[in-house]
Predict the 3D structure of the following.
Amino acid sequence: MDYVERVLETLKAKNPNEPEFHQAATEILNGLRPVVGRHPEYEKTALLERFVEPERIIMFRVPWVDDGGNVRVNKGYRVQFNSAIGPYKGGLRFHPSVNLSIMKFLGLEQILKNSLTGLPIGGGKGGSDFDPKGKSDMEVMRFCQSFMTELFRHIGQDTDVPAGDIGVGGREIGYLFGQYKRLRGEHVGVLTGRGLSYGGSLARTEATGYGLVYMMEEALKCRGDGFKGKTVIVSGSGNVAIYAVQKAQSLGANVVAMYDSNGYIYDKNGIDLAVVKQIKEVERGRIKLYAERVKGAEYHEGCKGIWNIPCDIALPCATQNEIDEESAKALVRGGVKYVGEGANMPTTLGGISVFQNANVVFLPAKAANAGGVATSALEMAQSSGRSYWSFEEVDAKLKTIMVNIYHNIDRAAAEYGAAGDYVAGANIAGFLKVADAMTAQGIV
Ligand code: NDP
Ligand code: 2IT
């Protein structure tokens, strides 16, 4: 058993029943094997053992009262995973599936993603099993206030800066920020993704989806290709999906399908994004409505069928493990040449192998969706400097960051004998900086 295998075996034994955490750790540590081979000092200082163990996990009760006067209780989490290169940074997810395993896989991924941005941010993640779907604004507000009443003592602009993720958008960030400010009496950049009237950054809303497309555009360009005329599938219909579609369409792509957790829409004429935005951002409705409003569009119950639609480029932007081995095979049969992960860990380990064996250009989440957190770091910079940058300025910085990440992971993969394997490249390039910072700071 080599060092990597030993660390993985111990991790699984010490953290049983955490399949998503095991999956993320397996992908990362396997990618790091060539690095560990060149740095025997990592094993001597138990660097990998320290890297996979969160610095701190906070778990708390979130009691709140619904509109009917009933008392409800949810679980709250904040995993402060690694602060070697900067304050903990990462989103909050509100979704009924949230559990410790999901929080830890997201936190572990976040460390390397944040490192790849080149900006000074450590890794963290948090959230709750609260489901904002179907709740009134006042219920969401009471929940957010209760959540922050516990979380506020653990976060701060220089210690831990949460943001949005699934189920946490502008509305939730507003309520969370309002309660933080009330409890601390400080108007500071403690959360990112804030509204523009109270410290938010232009282009943060668009950043993850735009960033994904910027990186894919660079990957296409390096192969003498482009988005123009390509058939694209984007899963999900939330923040990341909507702005990925917007940017891909602006570059001439034909985006033909999207979904929510109930089912998918297929519109061979190209998705009318204004209709999706109206349904999702304004009405908070179901994607099914799209087929009732747009002539020629189809709605199909269930999500999996989306991957049977022939396409050139697939951008999974909903949630973890949405593309399994079978779906990856369906995509390859349908002619997919490029896959870019907008969601976190949307492809299973088996699915990744299918893509790599078929020579699909595969851009992994921690690189491809880093535009969101990178722009969060730009929001932090604007807050600290008490200034605002124009949309064009933030967008240009975002694009530069995404293009740089692409070339960094490409170079790292080649340098470590895995040319074209961007999973390995992203893990290696992200890890080297964290390992260097951890080493410099001693055994902590
Ligand atoms: P949103 O809540 O805005 O949207 C999530 C979308 O994914 C919705 O369409 C939702 O459908 C769908 N979805 C969620 N769970 C499932 C499921 N189990 N099966 C099928 N569809 C599902 O979240 P975001 O767009 O912000 O996040 C999407 C992904 O991108 C997540 O993996 C997140 O971690 C990742 N990400 C987000 C960033 C950000 O800045 N927001 C940055 C980097 C990554 P429904 O409405 O039916 O639940
Ligand atoms: O997964 C992610 O990178 C996010 N949800 C964004 C985190 C952030 O701090 O902007």
